[in-house]
Amino acid sequence: MPLNILRLKHVTVVTTKKNVKALRRETYTVDFIKKQIEEFNIGKRHLANMMGEDPETFTQEDIDRAIAYLFPSGLFEKRARPIMKHPEQIFPKQKAIQWGEDGRPFHYLFYTGKQSYYSLMHDAYGKILDIEKHKNQLQAKGLFSEKNKTIDLIGSRWLIKEELEEMLVEKLSDQDYRQFVRLMERLLQSGAAEEEFVQSFRRSVTVQSKKQPIEPVQRDAQGMAFSTSEGKRKSAKAEAVVYEHGSGRIKVNGIDYLLYFPVLQDREQLMFPFHFLDRLGKHDVTCTVSGGGRSAQAGAIRLAVARALCSFVTEEEVEWMRQAGLLTSDPRVRERKKPGQEGARRKFTWKKR
Amino acid sequence: MLKGVASLVSRVRKLDPGHLRLGTQAPQSLAAQLDNQVSFESPRAISCTNENDPAKHEEKHEGLHYNLPLQDVKTVFPHGLPPRYAMQMKTFNEACLMVRKPALELLHYLKNTNFAHPAIRYVLYGEKGTGKTLSLCHIIHFCAKQDWLILHIPDAHLWVKNCRDLLQSTYNKQRFDQPLEASVWLKNFKTTNERFLSQIKIQEKYVWNKRESIEKGSSLGEVVEQGITRVRNATDAVGIVLKELKRQSSLGIFRLLVAVDGVNALWGRTTLKREDKSPIAPEELALIHNLRKMVRNDWNGGAIVLTLSQTGSLFKPRNACLPQELLGKEGFDALDPFIPIQVANYSPKEFESCIQYYMENSWLQHEKAHTEEGKKELLFLSNGNPGQLERLCAYL
């Protein structure tokens, strides 16, 4: 259902009650947006010239890189840094004025309140009915083939409510959204005819799980196969060297791990990767660690050891380790103290007077 | 018949895992009979041995636990056992010690000592929790069985810290007395060495104070009594006992074993202070002074076995475990020459035996403790350290 084109505001100067509502929201007029787009394009060409690149083949990524280079910003919030994007992405999509000069709305479902949503539902249901009619016809003729071409749903997901709202430029409620999803699924069930239509409402889910950095496979020295890797936690950095054939001795900074970590909890952390892979007494480890506290050092060594073990272990087990959380570095860092508070979260004692 | 009884007993044990007495008493007698006949597959045989006499402990007994009769324990160790071990003893209702290499080595040396030569000093050292004190107890038990006179100081650190009252010594104005510790020690000494006290006669006259004195020729028992009753003179009594024993051991009437645990306390620092808050050096404590004289090897007719301990030591870093570090230069020079014996963590066989022992006494209640993986986990977490293993198993 195409949206109505934005009309010039000065046409609707007729001050009927229906137009007051439109005047309240700040609307970007068609002219304004067009001007912005022209300015953007000109600016793009200027930027390409500045960077010494070809203006014709200057993509959005190039623009981003150029801006980051010309205006380096130290702000932590990425959205606060300078950006130069197409006006369509910057200015929010707005609904055009939905009624004409005489006050009569263009869309037949205007008075439902959510015209695009209901028109979408209506269309989808119409398609379902069409498919069923087609099926009945085929069955009557006897040409109905049992093959159900099921559309592959793996690797894609339905639009989430926010995305649907953005697409329809209308606010939806949760029940509306659920109803929509049910209708789509029913459409899928009835037949594979409207694949394009359905796929326009699905987004792919990137399978990012398999992308584990493959660790350097064993290196040999003196005939002993071993592998090295690093790990970090809070502010402790550790580097571990895991030997493939050993008897389960671990040395930390040259000291036996029993003496370096007198606390049981730290030793349990060290034990976790080996215990998970059932290789408790089979490897020797020598590691160096610095920084952080007792617990942070234990966590850093654990991560380093798990990463080093990946090179001695099958792909499946690497995947298991990743799911167990052995290969993810802990992002938790000490939170900064804020002014006006005693600590990161603790406020000063509140006195009534 | 025996097999039937064995299966019945094992069934009974399976039914009542909580009844320790039933479990421990019955298989012991069984094992005694069975061991003589066939090597039966009773789990007791893996971790325990029947040989209760330390004198007969050989290398083949290494890693096995032997039972100490409770009666012996009361006489020989009134004060000598580490507190955790005493708790374990109370729980299991029996005292079992593991036979380990350092102890066997020491026993070998002791059996071959030449009593004409000056007493040799043996120093047991090692990481924290590896079993130095219990090895010492093993040696003491052996010597008790061999009828030696045992001079056992359970922890020398107790004499250099946390002392309530310090009196100025009557004997020597420079030194300080510790009546409480001395009297406690005298009581325990009496329990251990009852039979010797009447035999040994002192060879000098000692004057306690204006009214009391002790004549030459009276027995050592009287000195000890005097020390116990008159707490003020207890330290002096201890000094007299030590002096007499040293003098008379060379005569050959008895053999003397000096066993000191935590000997690094003798040469370290103390936490005690005088009234004017100035610190006291160990030499100024009468007990320590006498003990130092005892530990010097200018007498013969016995042996000196010492243990270093970081746990109770004062002002020493946690990872210090070598004799040089713990004794300091002074102590090392004073003890030099000595024979150092290192006590290490459990070997795999010893570890296995320890776990078996705990399992027989139903100490490990966790389901996974019986499996191979569980054992591997325990081995990893404790790294074979007996102290750590014991603390770990306490949670299971």
Could you describe the 3D structure shown?
The complex is a heterodimer of chains A (353) and B (396). By secondary structure, chain A is of the alpha+beta class. Chain A has three domains: 30-89, no CATH class; 110-140 and 150-204, no CATH class; 218-324, Ribosomal Protein S5, domain 2, CATH 3.30.230. Chain A is 41% helix and 11% strand. Chain A has twelve helices and eight strands. Chain A has helices at residues 17-24, 30-51, 60-70, 87-90, 115-141, 161-168, 174-190, 195-199, 257-260, 264-276, 294-309, 315-324; strands spanning 156-158, 202-204, 219-221, 224-233, 236-243, 250-252, 255-256, 284-290. In chain A, the strands form two sheets. A six-stranded mixed beta sheet of chain A has the order 3-4-5-8-6-7. In chain A, strands 1-2 form a two-stranded antiparallel ribbon. In chain A, strand 4 (224-233) and strand 5 (236-243) form a beta hairpin. In chain A, helix 5 packs parallel to helix 7 (174-190) and helix 10 runs parallel beside helix 11. The longest helix of chain A has 27 residues, at 115-141. Mean pLDDT of chain A is 84; it is low at 7-15. Chain B has 396 residues and is an alpha/beta fold. Among the domains of chain B are: 115-342, Rossmann fold (3-Layer(aba) Sandwich); 348-394, no CATH class. Chain B is built from 16 helices and eleven strands. Chain B has helices at 2-15, 20-37, 43-47, 70-76, 83-92, 101-111, 132-145, 179-192, 194-199, 220-229, 234-249, 286-295, 323-335, 348-360, 372-382, 386-395; strands at residues 65-68, 95-98, 120-126, 149-153, 167-168, 176-177, 206-207, 213-214, 256-261, 302-307, 339-343. In chain B, the strands form four sheets. Chain B has a five-stranded parallel beta sheet, with helices on both faces. In chain B, strands 1-2 form a two-stranded antiparallel sheet. A two-stranded antiparallel ribbon of chain B has the order 5-6. In chain B, strand 5 and strand 6 (176-177) form a beta hairpin. In chain B, helix 15 (372-382) crosses helix 16. The model of chain B is unreliable at 1-41 (pLDDT under 50). The chains are: A alpha+beta (353), B alpha/beta (396). Chains A and B meet through strand 7, helix 9 and helix 10 of A and helix 15 of B.
